[in-house]
Amino acid sequence: MILPFLLPLLLFFSGCQQSPPSQITTFEGTAMTINYKVTIGHTLEPREIELIRSIVNSSFEEINSVYNRWNPKSELSKLNQFQSTEPTPISINLYSFLERTGKFVELSEGRFDPTIEPLLVLWKNSLEHNELPSEKALAEAKSSVGWEHIHLENGQFRKDNPLTQIDLGGIAKGYAVDLIVERLVKSGYTNILVEWGGEIRANGHHPEKRPWKVFIARLNDSNPDHSLAEIILEDEAIATSGDYNQFWIYKNGNATTVYTHVINPKTGHPLAIKKHSIASVSVLAPTCTEADALATAAMVFHDIDRAREWIAKIDPLLPKTEFWFVTRDTK
Fold first, then answer.
1. Which residue, 1, 4, 13, 3, is CA-closest to 226?
2. Low-confidence spans in the chain with pLDDT less than 50
3. What are phi and psi of 109, to 5 degrees?
């Protein structure tokens, strides 16, 4: 596992030079309000184009119908709406995925926690009115937060607090990318680059017989000529989590604090943007599911020294994983 260097705030630009049209085909669209791009490095027949579109569409539909908490008809939403503490049977796919999710919760020592939504909603509603939540409101929200409220056994799901909600947004995007890549490979396509909302996974190589490449770019500047780093993807995935997607400015007299949407499950408080705080984390891993969850967890650290200690601890379990940390004061 490697922590190569610190860079200024980053965004991803999936860069690849164009090959002759007959050798590369790109499929672009929007799924669940997020743009995606699927690049196939093969010469395709018309029937193959329809097959690939079908694989992409069916994969996104599976994510939407099973794992998307924003879809009120999804299987996950029905579990969130379930008010009983009695066990209920769930699909094999969701059961297996929740088991896998629980392992990342454990690996992150609770920093990656898909039950965090009540705290996020509370802080968002308060900060939008330039207020801080009361201790009572915080205690009520925290009482339903924690993966320990989720129980999986013999194909059944149970939550011991009926108010506990699950949001898989910090891992399901990566899983969707994995599904598409793995299903395309199974169908015989080996040179693939898939990107959805900044989560990226590559397989095989570019038609020019070189590896697929992505670039770490400067904020608001996606020009690859200005990029800060070039990342080679060889049957690997990369995901990024940052504090710049949503934030609120809280003013208390002459004091001003900028709070991000990143909630620390351990404290129940959002992270504040400071001079030395972590602005974003990118994780390179064998699968996008793994990269997504680890990037989400790593963003919770208040400083890079604590993050390094955690990475050193989990290093034996994740030998093929690399982390890039970006701090606010990096030049």
1. 13
2. 1-22, 331
3. 60, 35
